[in-house]
Amino acid sequence: MRPLMLLVLVCSVGCTAVPTPPEAVVRTVEVKIPVPVPCIAAMPLRPTVDTLADILALRNADAALALMTQHNVLLAYVGELEAVLAGCLPAHVMS
């Protein structure tokens, strides 16, 4: 009977013992996650051009001058668009 009481006593003491909690370790970990960002801040403003009816209403010399002026304006607009889009391309793609 005595060994049984000793066994119960040892078991009950073991159950009441509170284990010490593990210490919390704080460490900073750097994680690199790609985040999509817009490459275009704003679109260039589209220029206004004359309609076909406006150009046909002009005399020949004035119509030619108007078409040449619009052509130059549109070329400048295309240049702005290409410059904006070139900023979106990776460096190895640009030629």
Question: How would you describe what is shown here?
Answer:
This protein is mainly alpha-helical and 95 residues long. The protein has a domain at 51-95. The chain has helices spanning 2-16, 52-56, 60-86. The chain is rod-shaped and about 125 Å long. The termini are far apart.
* Mean pLDDT figure: 85
| Shape designation | rod-shaped
Total of DSSP H or I helical runs spanning 4+ residues: 3
N-to-C CA distance: 94 Å
Instruction: Output the radius of gyration.
Output: 40 Å
Secondary structural class = mainly alpha
User: Quaternary status of these chains?
Assistant: single chain
Signal peptide: 1-17
Keywords: Signal
What is the topology?
Layout: H1 2-16, H2 52-56, H3 60-86
Keywords: Signal
Quick recap:
The protein is mainly α and 95 residues long. The protein has three helices and no strands.
Keywords:
single chain, signal, 3 helices, 0% strand, 95 residues, mainly alpha
